[in-house]
Every structure is written in structure tokens, then in C-alpha cells.
Amino acid sequence: MKSWFFAALLGVCCIQAQAAASITAGTVSEIRVDADGRGFVVFTENLVNSTCATKKNALSFDLAKASGREVYAMVMQAKAANAKITAEGLGTCGKYSVVEEWSSGFIH
Hints:
Blueprint: H1 2-19, E1 22-33, E2 38-43, E3 58-62, H2 66-81, E4 84-89, E5 100-107
Parallel strand pairs: 3-5
Antiparallel strand pairs: 1-2, 1-4, 2-3, 4-5
């Protein structure tokens, strides 16, 4: 019984992980920040596996949160240096209904 439950749990985790959008070595095209602190980064390439977003080349962040400020600083640095970013989304579009939320990423 326990092994069946573990296998089902592992399957759900894998499905959830695959539902999030990702980009490998994308270049930042533009960065938008609205008056309420929400913003998003637009890449020159489309994301892979974006399920909720209709804007397929962007990930959103929130400057009201420390994590959002970190994302903003990173993408500003990448844009200034014309560096590539690898990033992953959360699989949800809560901040903007057409843009997936940022989960994690790094500069190359």
C-alpha cells in the first residue's frame, strides 16, 4: 500500500514539474514594471511548456516581495550585459492572467 501511494505521489510531482514553463539561455528583450509593483520580463525566445500563459515569451514577478526584487535585479543585470538567462515558471498565471509567474533562474 505504501509503495503504491509513494508511486502516485511521485507521479503527481513529476506532472506538476513538467507543467511549468522554462527557457534555456534566453536573452532579455524588455522589462516592464507597473505602478502596483507587478512586472514581467520578456525574452527574445518563447518559453517551453507554458500552460496558462498566452504571452509565451515572458515571466512575471512582484516587487512587493524580496524574491521579486531579486528577479528584477538579475534581469536588469542580464539586460545591461546582454547575458543569457535560464529560468523556470511556477505553472500559474496569478499576477497577470496572460504571463506565467517566475519560479527560479540564473544568468549564464
